[in-house]
Design a protein that fits this description.
The chain has about 230 residues and is α/β, with parallel strands linked by helices. It is about 35% helix and about 10% strand. It has a single domain, classed as Rossmann fold.
């Protein structure tokens, strides 16, 4: 049941952001979902975000277009090949080419702008610092720094009327724990997509970092991933 509190939730249509939206809703927030069409190489995640937003009956769902392909620098926004592996243990420890420069800074800035217009103090983002690909903008110290900046950069923060809070409920969870939390909240993961390199039908490759981590999360819960895969 809604408590009337407003929250902007960054919603990509993936497993993590969907779980994050479910948590926000279960915590009593009215969810205002924000999806970024940033020039990513596949649009199926935008479609997935639409499905999730409708399923959760969010208060409003905005899809904002910003073309980061103009900058490139990532396998997700240029013609760089997405790395593939045969096993999750093959994922390296260095920042991979799927990292999109400044992506979460850009996304959180848009979320911050909408939150201030809505009069919302709360922003949810599904970043994770355990089972993830090593992105620097998924770490707790980054979120803390952005929160400090947000409260210096907004009228609501400076006046003290509505200081910004950034919620990262998944940040210290394993992928298996994230899946379990979502399942406990009734999330249908069949409507989500996580793959960095899906085919034209939107089916996941099963071998990129995102797919391998997702598959392990379901396996460790003893269940099959309901997502659609090429193999």
């Amino acid at each position: 049941m809604s408590g009337g509190k407003k929250a902007v939730v960054l919603l990509s249509g993936g497993l993590d952001s969907t779980t994050c939206a479910a948590i926000a809703k279960s915590d009593g927030f009215d969810v205002y979902a924000l999806t970024m069409a940033y020039g990513q190489r596949h649009t199926c995640e935008i479609e997935a975000a639409d499905r999730v937003a409708k399923s959760f009956d969010v208060k409003k769902h905005l899809t904002v277009e910003i073309d980061l392909r103009q900058f490139g620098g990532s396998a997700l926004t240029s013609d760089i090949d997405v790395p593939k592996h045969d096993n999750v243990t093959d994922i390296g420890t260095e920042i991979p080419v799927t990292y999109v420069p400044a992506r979460n800074t850009v996304f959180l800035s848009y979320a911050l702008a909408w939150a201030e217009v809505l009069g919302a103090q709360d922003i949810f983002i599904g970043v994770n610092a355990l089972d993830y690909s090593g992105y620097p903008d998924c770490r707790p110290e980054y979120i803390d720094a952005f929160t400090r900046m947000a409260n210096l950069a907004t009228k609501a923060g400076v006046t003290g009327e509505a200081p910004v809070r950034i919620h990262t409920p998944l940040i210290d969870l394993t992928k298996a724990q994230i899946v379990r939390r979502g399942l406990d909240l009734g999330v249908d993961y069949g409507m989500t997509t996580s793959c960095y390199d899906p085919d034209e039908q939107g089916r996941a490759c099963g071998r990129c970092d995102a797919c391998l981590l997702r598959l392990r999360g379901f396996k460790e819960n003893g269940i099959d991933d309901p997502g659609q895969y090429q193999e």
